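Why does residue order matter? Because the sequence determines the fold. Keep that principle in mind as you read this record.
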Amino acid sequence: MVRVTVWNEYRHEREDDNVAELYPEGIHAALADALEERGHDVRTATLDEDDEHGLSRDVLDDTDVLLWWGHLAHDEVSDEVVDRVVERVRDGMGFLPLHSAHYSKPFKRLMGTSCSLKWREAGERERLWTVEPGHPIAEGIDEQIVVPEAEMYGERFDIPQPDALVFVSWFEGGEVFRSGCCYRRGSGRIFYFRPGHEEYPIYDQEEIITVIDNAIEWASPTDGVEPNFSSVEAAEPIGEE
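Structure:
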């Protein structure tokens, strides 16, 4: 059982009646319910929960994979908490920034780029094409996922070249976008997944939850040799004939 923390800014749902109708308990609660049904051990955390945004060191130490949803208040996230998240990712915690979390402080720090892109809000159709069908994150997913209404994100997406690109989006207005990007930073795995605009019921789509579920399994920590970053004795004799 993977220990998952779903972090959500939780502002739209409290300030916009239309979003509140779609996600009355918040996006974090909707994702948590869906992932608990998939067998994960899930907790939630939100921006205004406390001074640490619900992400104390103890919470992060007890988290295998952290999901992150934010949009309006990226700059309100404490740099101390960002440092803590980035450190845990490098130590092996999985990290799944969703949709507008491309501009989140942790993702930008881990990418080392602006993570900027084009966008348009027109409620247009999106086709997510599975371009790496053999990847574990694509297990059980057809050649394409159709999202009936979505916010458009378009290239250029200012990110490093992904280690693996699992999904590419096409939008009704003509743009394309790298929507499913895998990275490794230190011992941690990162999967950026684009769908999830708050004004549409995208997290009600079974295929979208399947991708997130697969990504959690892929990003969860694995056993391996602990890196040793210190002065060490020679493993073989030096200078002996």
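The CA atoms of residues 129 and 144 lie 4 Å apart.
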